[in-house]
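Hi support team,

I've been running sequence recovery on a batch of backbones for a student project. Most finish fine, but this one hangs at about 90% for roughly twenty minutes before it completes. I'm not sure whether the input is malformed or the queue is just slow. I've pasted the structure tokens below so you can try to reproduce it. Let me know if you need the job ID as well.

Thanks,
M.K.
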């Protein structure tokens, strides 16, 4: 492993990858796991992630504790959040979710190890930032939106069924957006990743306007301090995801909707600004969605 200092940036080389941090950090422990073949270093969560291969088996390693370029907070906070996420992954273990296989402290940092999933993130901002996400034919999101409706509906079913399960376990989704969706274009399989911020239900918005999540999939209450975050909030998120994958994303007009009108009626009710006008639960939303499908 080597590093090069350049204008308060440290370029680290380990295995086949090179990446930059705000300061030098020891990653020699990674080489003990296996051969590092890729890195995801442009996250604003304070985590840095690696693809590691050992004995022809691939793993995904998420690590908190280093000062990544995109993270402005304290690395200790990122470490604490990753540690707190471990019981969430264990409690919400599900075929539609990436599988946690190990976790442990590494010096002052913390590592979570998952099974590798062959798929592409639908919000790959590190490769297709800004409008390129929507206009570049190589963008995973662009390619996904070019798929036929049936395949996109199947992907949504994976998402909705998982979140119905999440609700049944007494949890709510926080910070779920298209960056949490992995899609395998070869086998047309969908997996959910990055549920680090999911919480026990009910909860409240204890941050305010900058509550975790992407603007395009957050419910109105996720912008307001001390408002409830619960199943109705998640119903909005599910509807917003449906509009993202089948319609005009934040443009909820019927003219941008690519599926049939009955599904549109379900989705538009889900994204009502007034909480009480939405479905009361994700389960109720999912049942209405499936009824409209038939």
């Amino acid at each position: 492993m080597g590093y090069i200092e350049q204008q308060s940036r440290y370029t680290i080389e380990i295995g086949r990858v090179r990446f930059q941090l705000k300061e030098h950090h020891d990653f020699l422990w990674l080489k003990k796991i296996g051969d590092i073949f890729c890195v995801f270093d442009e996250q604003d969560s304070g985590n840095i992630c690696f693809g590691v291969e050992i004995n022809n088996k691939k793993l995904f390693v998420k690590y908190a504790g280093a000062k990544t370029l995109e993270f402005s907070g304290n690395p200790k906070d990122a470490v604490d959040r990753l540690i707190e996420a471990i019981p969430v992954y264990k409690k919400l273990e599900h075929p539609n979710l990436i599988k946690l296989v190990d976790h442990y402290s590494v010096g002052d940092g913390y590592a979570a190890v998952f099974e590798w999933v062959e798929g592409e993130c639908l919000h790959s901002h590190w490769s297709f930032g800004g409008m390129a996400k929507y206009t570049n034919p190589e963008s995973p999101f662009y390619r996904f939106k070019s798929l036929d409706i049936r395949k996109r509906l199947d992907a949504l079913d994976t998402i909705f069924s998982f979140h119905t399960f999440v609700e049944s376990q007494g949890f709510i989704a926080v910070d779920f957006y298209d960056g949490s969706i992995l899609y395998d274009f070869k086998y047309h399989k969908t997996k959910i990743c990055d549920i680090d911020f999911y919480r026990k239900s009910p909860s409240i918005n204890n941050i305010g306007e900058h509550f975790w999540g992407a603007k395009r999939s957050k419910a109105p209450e996720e912008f307001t301090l001390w408002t409830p975050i619960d199943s109705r909030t998640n119903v909005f998120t599910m509807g917003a995801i449906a509009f993202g994958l089948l319609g005009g994303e934040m443009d909820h007009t019927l003219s941008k909707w690519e599926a049939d009108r009955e599904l549109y009626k379900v989705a538009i009710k889900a994204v009502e600004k007034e909480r009480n006008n939405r479905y009361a639960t994700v389960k109720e939303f999912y049942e209405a969605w499936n009824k409209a499908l038939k």
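--
Follow-up from support: It reproduced on our side and the slowdown came from queue contention, not your input. The two ends are 57 Å apart (CA to CA). No action needed from you.
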